[in-house]
């Protein structure tokens, strides 16, 4: 009997681990440059791509995990918080598959690889000039 209970717990644990949703995370992207990482969503959260606008012309993009109730809604982002000073508006479009919020941006690009690419480009520019 104990063996059956342990097997059921092991199977349940596998399902619990498998059900964790992974999403790309980008806190804020300007000019379509988004350095992403991966994050695991909590219970009741899905992946999102957020597209917004600041000052009427500057495009803002974000991605990460969001509560289902925040999906397909436009929200005003205030700074400082709890004031009426709207910095930008953003609309979150959601999806519920692992890493489904990959575009737009540079998915999987880490800060280190981006820095390495920049240093290499500068080095090559100095050699060629």
In short:
With 129 residues, this protein is α+β, with helices and mostly antiparallel strands. The protein is 27% helix and 37% strand. It has a single domain (2-128), classed as CD59 (Ribbon).
Offer a few descriptive terms.
129 residues, alpha+beta, CD59, flat
Describe the overall structure.
This protein has 129 residues and is α+β, with helices and mostly antiparallel strands. It has a single domain, classed as CD59, CATH 2.10.60. The protein contains two helices and six strands; from the N terminus they run αββββββα. The protein has helices at 2-18, 111-128; strands at 22-30, 37-40, 45-54, 58-67, 74-78, 86-95. A six-stranded antiparallel sheet has the order 2-1-4-3-6-5, with no helix packed on it. Strand 3 (45-54) and strand 4 form a beta hairpin. It is flat and about 55 Å long. The model is unreliable at 8-18 and 105-110 (pLDDT under 50). It is found in: Cell membrane. Belongs to the SPACA4/bouncer family. One of its GO terms (cellular component) is plasma membrane.
């Amino acid at each position: 009997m104990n063996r059956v209970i342990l097997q059921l717990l092991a199977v349940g644990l596998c399902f619990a681990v498998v059900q964790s949703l992974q999403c790309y995370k980008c806190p804020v992207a300007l000019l379509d440059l988004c350095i992403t990482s991966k994050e695991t969503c909590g219970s009741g959260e899905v992946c999102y791509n957020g597209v917004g606008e600041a000052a009427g012309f500057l495009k803002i993009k974000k991605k990460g995990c969001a509560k289902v109730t925040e999906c397909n809604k436009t929200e005003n982002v205030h700074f400082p918080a709890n004031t009426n000073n709207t910095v930008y508006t953003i609309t979150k479009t959601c999806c519920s598959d692992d890493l489904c919020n990959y575009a737009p941006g540079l998915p999987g690009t880490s800060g280190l690889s981006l820095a390495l690419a920049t240093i290499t480009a500068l080095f090559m520019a100095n050699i060629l000039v």
